[in-house]
């Protein structure tokens, strides 16, 4: 049986005020609705059925998968996430240092890695993964970044990153892309301005996605999407944020390998490439009522997403071994998140 998951909102300053309320069918209240968490993570455990219903964990136990709705009204931090061993060591190190789990300077709030996928529900602008040095060099020449080009050519991407974060003056932006100048309007002196052009700048169409394995350097800029990840809140930041940053830690865990294909689309079965063996995500288009057969793992189902029907989608939980059905009309879109 499908049971509604009541998510936990996160009112971060970068959030959009209207996208999540409008999507879920309730009136905006003046708050910034940055995220809604639909999982069992201790930072924001969701409930079933109603706001005061049982915890999702009472029915599902601990879930290794966390599903969110995310709505960015302005850029999020330039950030990356650890792999399993880095998370285990980092969490143990901060525990030993006596850093409270909720302290704002805590980076490792659990011992899990945090690979994730972001699937666009609206046009979604982001930075994701490194371009090749040749492509970056061509862009730097076009931007008239002679000093930056020399540093990159001499020291490579890793050496260039260290140099960037040691600079205390902003770059010249006269010949830079508009998206970078827009970020500079918010963070005019941020060292991340010299880093951002190394990354792929993408604008996802609805249904397209970015896949973010451990170490991927990224920053969301604007848009609304479904985000699925290992159940973790481990974030290491280095720019574009008033939150705690730790450049040394980011440089220790970031993966500077070029990313060949930043934008992904589902395969013939509707399944997206997953960065994790803990979950997979499938996108289906309904032909009518959707019936979900019993399988051996838990599922979180988001939908139906309809054009002009006046019906708001919801997030549902379907326990392992159970069947369920969802009222839908031909053409409705549904996302099925499988905990593996």
From TrEMBL:
Keywords: Isomerase, Metal-binding, Zinc. This is mannose-6-phosphate isomerase. Belongs to the mannose-6-phosphate isomerase type 1 family. Its EC number is 5.3.1.8. It comes from freshwater metagenome. It is an enzyme of class 5 (isomerase). InterPro entries: Man6P_Isoase-1, Mannose-6-P_Isomerase, PMI_typeI_cat, RmlC-like_jellyroll, RmlC_Cupin_sf. It catalyses: D-mannose 6-phosphate = D-fructose 6-phosphate. The lineage of its organism: unclassified sequences, metagenomes, ecological metagenomes. Its cofactor is Zn(2+).
């Amino acid at each position: 049986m499908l049971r509604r998951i009541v998510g936990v909102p996160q009112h971060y300053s970068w959030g959009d005020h209207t996208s999540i309320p409008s999507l879920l069918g309730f009136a905006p209240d003046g708050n910034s609705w940055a995220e809604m968490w639909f999982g069992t993570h201790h930072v924001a455990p969701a409930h079933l059925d109603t706001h005061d219903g049982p915890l999702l964990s009472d029915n599902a136990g601990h879930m290794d998968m966390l599903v969110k709705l995310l709505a960015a009204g302005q850029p999020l931090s330039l950030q990356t996430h650890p792999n399993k061993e880095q998370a285990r060591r980092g969490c143990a190190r901060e525990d030993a240092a006596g850093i409270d789990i909720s302290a704002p300077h805590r980076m490792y709030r659990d011992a899990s890695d945090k690979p994730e996928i972001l699937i666009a529900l609206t046009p979604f602008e982001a930075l994701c993964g490194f371009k090749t040095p040749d492509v970056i060099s061509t862009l730097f020449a076009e931007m008239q970044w002679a000093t930056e080009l020399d540093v990159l050519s001499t020291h490579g991407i890793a050496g260039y990153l260290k140099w960037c974060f040691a600079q205390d003056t902003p770059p010249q932006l006269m010949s830079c892309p508009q998206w970078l100048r827009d970020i500079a309007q918010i963070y005019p002196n941020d060292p991340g301005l010299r880093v951002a052009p190394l990354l792929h700048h993408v604008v996802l169409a609805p249904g397209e996605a970015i896949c973010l394995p451990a170490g991927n350097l990224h920053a969301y800029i604007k848009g609304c999407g479904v985000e699925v990840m290992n159940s973790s809140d481990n974030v290491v930041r280095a720019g574009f944020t008033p939150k705690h940053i730790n450049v040394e830690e980011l440089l220790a865990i970031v993966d500077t390998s070029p990313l060949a294909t930043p934008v992904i689309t589902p395969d013939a079965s509707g399944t997206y490439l997953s960065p994790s063996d803990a979950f997979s995500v499938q996108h289906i288009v309904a032909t009518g009522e959707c019936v979900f057969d019993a399988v051996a793992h838990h599922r979180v189902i988001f939908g139906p997403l309809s054009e002009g029907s006046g019906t708001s989608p919801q997030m549902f939980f379907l326990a392992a071994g159970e069947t369920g059905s969802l009222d839908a009309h031909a053409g409705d879109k549904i996302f099925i998140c499988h905990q593996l």
